[in-house]
Specification:
By secondary structure, this protein is an alpha/beta fold. The protein has two domains: about 20-65 and about 345-365, 5,6-Dimethylbenzimidazole Phosphoribosyltransferase, Chain: A, domain 1, CATH 1.10.1610.10; about 70-340, Rossmann fold. It has helices at about 10-15, 25-35, 45-60, 90-100, 105-115, 155-175, 190-200, 205-210, 215-235, 235-240, 245-250, 255-265, 275-290, 305-315, 330-350, 355, 360-365, and strands at about 70-75, 115-125, 135, 180-185, 270-275, 295-300. The protein has a six-stranded parallel β-sheet, with helices on both faces. The longest helix is centred in the middle third of the chain and has 20 residues, at about 155-175. It is globular, with a radius of gyration of 21 Å.
Length: about 375
């Protein structure tokens, strides 16, 4: 019996999983409907692109991205010992408690917008957190190792993080969620994300080391130097073409779990919203495992972290929103979800030219 050759690294690591490319026929059907609606062609801009992709993911009407779930993943990082953040590592755990008490920006935006929120403890320092209805305990340890001295985690731990993320996406799909979002929390994780971008996309640490949670010019220069040290310490892994080795070397527990969530969303044919700088690094890693994920992932916003726009340009992708956000948590992804809802509503509810008795040829000649 012939065995199919894996088409991507995801299938090599997890032979039971596959991300199917969007069906071109469904994309064409969606475009045909969009062009039949009472508007000039293309006049809804990127909402039309979103609607087209949403239709091709599910292949049926009405389009729906509700209910939606934000998974905010938290973990600590050994690189914090190199003083790359103005905040102490204790803040990660404190912010997780703030999420669970409903006091963070992501809580306010999820409540306002109608998106459910779960907080995933992928490995905060200090041991397991007390059980809470909003908390999903998926701990991989008390933070990663210091990547400036060697790999942040073992290959086996990184593989487990991917498996955890994929299962979180599967669980959400089984619970009936029609859209996912990823957010994060972890002191020093802008340094980790920058190192991952540099390693995956060939970017310069000096261009990618930004202010993060409030670093000044001197600390940013220090961050760039620490990233260079980490890349040198892990040179063998980073010069390979193995995304698992790269992610294990300079990744984080929360980044690896988010990478798995993104891959799991693609496996489940669900749209998934990618928040800013750190989530974008998880997305870059996920593309290295399965390039076809790009058809399911929606980049929510351009972070004010300077390196983010450089990384997105290298990937050749344009996020939806430009709001100057750099908080993380999933805040930009929650806001972008409203654009998906709008795209679905227009696709579902607008009248066609035929139904409305409007002369399509006249409308198509309108100069916008």
């Amino acid at each position: 019996m012939d065995v199919a050759t894996p088409s991507c690294e995801l299938e090599r690591l997890f032979p039971q999983y596959h991300i199917a490319p969007l069906d071109k026929r469904l994309l064409e059907q969606a475009q045909k409907r969009l062009d039949s609606l009472t508007k000039p062609p293309g006049s809804l801009g990127r909402l039309e692109e979103l609607a087209q992709r949403l239709y091709a993911m599910r292949g049926q009407m009405p389009l729906s991205v509700s209910p939606a779930l934000m998974l905010t993943v938290a973990a600590d990082h050994g690189i914090a010992a190199q003083r790359v953040s103005p905040f102490s590592q204790a803040v990660t755990r404190q912010m997780v408690m703030n999420f669970l008490q409903g006091g963070a920006a992501v809580n306010a935006l999820c409540t306002c917008g109608g998106m459910d929120l779960r907080v995933v403890d992928a490995g905060c320092c200090g041991g397991p957190l007390k059980a809470h209805p909003m908390l999903l305990g998926r701990r991989l340890g008390n933070g990663t190792a210091d990547m400036s001295k060697g790999p942040a985690m073992s290959r086996e731990t990184c593989l487990e993080a991917l498996r955890i993320g994929i299962e979180l996406a599967h669980d959400a799909a089984r619970q009936g969620y029609a859209c996912l979002g990823v957010g994060e929390m972890g002191i020093a994780n802008t340094t980790v994300a920058a190192a991952l971008y540099c390693s995956l996309l060939g970017l310069d640490p000096q261009d990618m080391a930004g202010p993060g949670a409030g670093a000044g010019p001197e600390m940013m220069l220090h961050k760039a130097a620490v990233i260079k040290t980490a890349m040198a310490a892990n040179a063998r892994a980073l010069t390979s073409s193995d995304p698992l080795a790269i992610l294990a070397a300079v990744g984080g527990f929360e980044i690896a779990v988010m990478c798995g969530i993104l891959l799991g969303a693609g496996i489940e044919r669900l749209p998934v919203l990618v928040d800013g700088f750190i989530c974008g690094a998880a997305y870059a890693a996920a593309l290295a495992f399965a390039p076809q994920l790009a058809e399911y992932a929606i980049l929510a916003h351009v972070s004010a972290e300077p390196g983010h726009i450089r990384a997105m340009a290298r990937l050749g992708q344009e996020p939806l929103l430009h709001l100057g956000l750099c908080l993380g948590e999933g805040t930009g992804a929650v806001l972008a979800w409203q654009l998906l809802r709008g795209a679905a509503a227009c696709f579902n509810d607008m009248a066609t030219f035929a139904a409305a008795g409007v002369n399509a040829e006249t409308v198509h000649r309108i100069e916008l």
